[in-house]
Amino acid sequence: MDANQRIARISAHLNPPNLDQMGGDGSGLRRVGCRAKGGSPGFKVAILGAAGGIGQPLAMLMKMNPLVSVLHLYDVANAPGVTADISHMDTSAVVRGFLGQPQLEEALTGMDLVIIPAGVPRKPGMTRDDLFNINAGIVRTLSEAIAKCCPKAVVNIISNPVNSTVPIAAEVFKKAGTFDPKKLMGVTMLDVVRANTFVAEVMSLDPREVDVPVVGGHAGVTILPLLSQVKPPCSFTQKEIEYLTDRIQNGGTEVVEAKAGAGSATLSMAYAAVKFADACLRGLRGDANIVECAFVSSHVTELPFFASKVRLGRSGIDEVYGLGPLNEYERIGLEKAKKELGGSIEKGVTFVKK
Ligand SMILES: NC(=O)C1=CN([C@@H]2O[C@H](COP(=O)(O)OP(=O)(O)OC[C@H]3O[C@@H](n4cnc5c(N)ncnc54)[C@H](O)[C@@H]3O)[C@@H](O)[C@H]2O)C=CC1
Ligand SMILES: O=C([O-])CC(=O)C(=O)O
């Protein structure tokens, strides 16, 4: 092949159909897509909210994941820039960008996994529930498009308040007749990541060796670390239990306050989201014994959704595990968690039904 032919081949990748007009919104912006030669067979993953504080590092880390063959980056702003940037990474996933509502359906068609970090983050003094008014509508719109374009995809919801946004997505899918409880997961992995880190600090362990089940939901007292079930087995004083429980429950607020108005956890969240997404993809591939905590449709308590350990497999969630033996402190925590969680779930369901 001579130089002219090589250049022609490269520009073929940068011209239609891989570099299309960003038609729909009239912005004249372009959709960038680069097909890496030798791209491995793998899964198709879309990130909705890909240009945000979480979305950007999440996109970068998913581009590094060898299980991903196609990566779709959708946002209502700045998707072309993030896509061009990420697409220059010399890993095999093909990256395509999609900007704005007119391109949402194209972004979702054919996807195996959809990860949703779209929505506004907290500022100091706010609760996650204070985000409901804006984020509920965003998650509803995105879920409607998922029901239409990739109803069999596994969906990972990051947008807060997770305790309400997951029931919102479920209700939208029920309305559309596509709801599969095995495919819908609220991402609570950051609570587990924090719990592992804080327990490791207290016990002088390597955090990679620590596994703390965190159950319930993803806000304040609904975040319930089961410190009696930590692996490796640890014996904590009551003071340590109270310190750890409080720090894990308020880890998000710790970051919101430290960022002082510039948002909430983004980098640790992207790390946690990728850890969870990778577990989902390994499950879809058929790997055995993939067990992680997630906020899912559940019969573990009387509530319709609850976070607990789940086994991930070829169809999404293969099994939802019960809570195991709880001590008195955890039983009291569970009652508090259920009380708040019930209201948040109901709020999400009502939002779609009204
Ligand atoms: N589940 C969890 O553990 C955690 C959840 N979060 C939540 O994740 C969400 C995102 O946080 P950040 O990335 O820091 O916020 P951000 O504001 O930096 O990014 C959000 C992105 O969503 C985009 N967006 C807004 N409306 C959209 C729509 N209709 N469709 C697609 N994209 C849309 C924005 O353009 C922006 O790029 C927040 O709700 C936050 O509370 C944050 C940390 C942890
Ligand atoms: O605290 C927030 O608003 C963001 C979040 O969910 C977390 O960091 O756990």
Automatic annotation (TrEMBL):
EC top class named in words: oxidoreductase
Compartments, as annotated in UniProt: Peroxisome
InterPro entries cross-referenced by the UniProt entry: L-lactate/malate_DH (IPR001557), Lactate/malate_DH_C (IPR022383), Lactate/malate_DH_N (IPR001236), Lactate_DH/Glyco_Ohase_4_C (IPR015955), Malate_DH_AS (IPR001252), Malate_DH_type1 (IPR010097), NAD(P)-bd_dom_sf (IPR036291)
Entry annotated with the keyword Kinase: no
Residues bound to NAD(+): G49, A50, A51, G52, G53, I54, G55, D75, N135, I158, S159, N160, M269
Domain Lactate/malate dehydrogenase N-terminal: 44-186
Record text on subunit structure and interactions: Homodimer.
Listed name of the protein: Malate dehydrogenase
Lineage: Eukaryota, Viridiplantae, Streptophyta, Embryophyta, Tracheophyta
